[in-house]
Amino acid sequence: MTGSKPTLAIIGGTGNLGTGLARRWLGGGYEVIIGSRTAEKARQVADTLIVPEGGRKAVGDANFQAANLAEIIVLTVPYGWANAILDDIKPAVHGKIVVDTTVPLMLPKVARVQLPPEGSAAVAAQKRLGDGARVVSAFHNVAAQKLQSGVEVDCDVLVFGDSPDDREVVIALAEAAGLRGIHGGPLDNSAAAEALTSVLIGINRKYGVEGAGIRITGIA
Amino acid sequence: MTGSKPTLAIIGGTGNLGTGLARRWLGGGYEVIIGSRTAEKARQVADTLIVPEGGRKAVGDANFQAANLAEIIVLTVPYGWANAILDDIKPAVHGKIVVDTTVPLMLPKVARVQLPPEGSAAVAAQKRLGDGARVVSAFHNVAAQKLQSGVEVDCDVLVFGDSPDDREVVIALAEAAGLRGIHGGPLDNSAAAEALTSVLIGINRKYGVEGAGIRITGIA
């Protein structure tokens, strides 16, 4: 833990993606607050996260409190709950980077691309939170169950946001989680990675695999 | 050349993507008809394509005639011209596989994802051609200039279409061009690869490279 590392709130952080990222960021020396609808549930899950050597125990709190205490807010909530949770944390995100991992999966056809009218879940979140929030979207294509372990994940993280500097911050978070982060361009471009998740779910089914991912070629 | 290989028309086939695919398919023993707005232009370009050993010379014809003579039709036309060319060839495509490579790049911001109201260029093409055409979309993410040479292209081809059998046919065409083709699911999912092309253009600029591509991981 160094003073220069921002405190991270993982909103809706009790699921596979939230706890998977939490484990890796704790291992990277970050302070992590797990957020959930109730503080009690958040604390229960935070208590299950193994503290890495030299690391700090995760804490838990209700989503709004977690967002309020953190410098960077990471959203790992199911698409169907996103709007209610965005409204809940909105007063706590002004001026902060909000990392949106939301993929617009529409039940029951989660392997069919169904982007929202705004073009992407990330653009919809930015509109809902207002100009005060600095929404960056990322981590759409990473298989959550692979993050739970310490294994290398064979998947790049495309990072989208209208501020290249904010994208750099999130690329550093990807790297702290053991993943390669790549500039994907403006927030509008989030549609590409969000759509790709449905394609990857279909590939998992069609090819009988788990955790198909993507790599960008030709840049290294 | 074997009798079992379908004759291919490459509509709008005088550009980099069209001639790049043509070279590779000629090398794979396919009969190729280059289509252009005028038969003369198409023949001029067909004459420039090197005939591979044991292969057959490409021929050229006007777009409609090329489509009419072929068993499989491949569209390699700029987005702005797509509707006019679809209307031109529509009477010639009934019952045939139409491989749409169109990416909805909107000048001047080609590195910004701007999907059409139909959700994707491929779905728009299917609507324009009507139910008689079997639209499959593919080859969105491959750098055209890399196809011109015989080098291995480090990029997968995501193939979208509502018929898995038709997708298989196009996956075989990708393989004949030296590329790995992958089932990407229904035509609606074409949005993912179309959007990704704008992301890749942005990556080329941001990282100072040419021909960034994608690989699907975890399936082989």
Verbal overview:
- Two copies of one chain form a homodimer.
- By secondary structure, chain A is of the alpha/beta class.
- Chain A has one domain: Rossmann fold, CATH 3.40.50.720.
- Chain A has an eight-stranded mixed sheet, with helices on both faces.
- The radius of gyration of chain A is 16 Å and the shape is globular.
- The two termini of chain A are 30 Å apart.
- The mean pLDDT of chain A is 95.
- At the A-B interface, β8, α8 and β9 of A face β8, α8 and β9 of B.
Q: Estimate the strand proportion of chain A.
A: 15-25%
Note the total helix count of chain A.
Answer: 8
CATH C-level class of chain A is: Alpha Beta
Instruction: Give the strand order, joined by hyphens, for the main sheet of chain A.
Output: 3-2-1-4-5-6-7-8
Please sum up the structure shown.
The structure is a homodimer of 220-residue chains. The first copy, chain A, has eight helices and nine strands.
Helix and strand layout, with pairings?
Two copies of one chain form a homodimer.
Chain A: E1 8-11, H1 16-27, E2 32-36, H2 39-48, E3 59-62, H3 63-69, E4 72-75, H4 82-89, E5 97-100, H5 121-129, E6 134-137, H6 144-148, E7 156-161, H7 164-176, E8 180-185, H8 190-207, E9 213-217
Parallel strand pairs in A: 1-2, 1-4, 2-3, 4-5, 5-6, 7-8
Antiparallel strand pairs in A: 6-7
Keywords:
37% helix; homodimer; Rossmann fold; alpha/beta; 220 residues; 9 strands
